[in-house]
Amino acid sequence: MNKETFKQTYLPLSASMYRTAYRILGNPEDAEDMVQEAYMKLWKQRDTLDGILDARAYAVTSVKNLCLDTIRKRHLSYEDYEKTERTMAAASTPYTETIHSEEAALLHRYIDSLEEPQHTVVVMRDIGGYSFEEIASVVQLKEAHIRMILSRARRKLRELYIKTMDHHEQKKYS
């Protein structure tokens, strides 16, 4: 795809891309950054874009995926978990703070082990605080399906946690 065709095809899509990014991230500056990053990615792929049948869907999906990656990076870093746990346990003892930190790290590993779309749904709902409607629009599934996915993901996380705690209890008394 040449420069002129790229401009005519993809530049008019900036408003749709921005709306998608803003709906996911909730911050105008971050949304603008994601749109710019998506354009850079699209420009690098311009030689393969001629085969794309729906440029709008492709561009919006590109920006959506970049936003989801950003959310994962922001919300799943170990430092974020530690900071949150320290804030919640501000009045706690060093012992309980260590326990909370270890539990946060454990939960982080469990969330990372979830497969898609469970991983994205848990991150967006439980960490990002997004509504079911927002999550449904991002992952392009019905709200009822999102609720089912979230329920199953939480059940899996709970089972992993209980299994680990049972293992630690057995180890303690062995």
From TrEMBL:
UniProt entry tagged with the keyword tRNA processing: no
Domain (RNA polymerase sigma-70 region): residue spans on this chain: 17-74
Keyword set includes Metal-binding: no
One GO term (biological process): DNA-templated transcription initiation
Keyword list, A-Z: DNA-binding, Sigma factor, Transcription, Transcription regulation
Pfam name, any one: Sigma70_r2
UniProt xrefs under InterPro entries: RNA_pol_sigma-70-like, RNA_pol_sigma-70_dom, RNA_pol_sigma70_r2, RNA_pol_sigma70_r4_t2, RNA_pol_sigma_r2, RNA_pol_sigma_r3/r4-like, WH-like_DNA-bd_sf
One MF annotation (Gene Ontology) recorded for this entry: sigma factor activity
RNA polymerase sigma factor 70 region 4 type domain span: 106-157
Family, similarity comment: Belongs to the sigma-70 factor family. ECF subfamily.
Protein name: ECF RNA polymerase sigma factor SigE
Organism of origin: Paraprevotella clara
Upper classification of the organism: Bacteria, Pseudomonadati, Bacteroidota, Bacteroidia, Bacteroidales
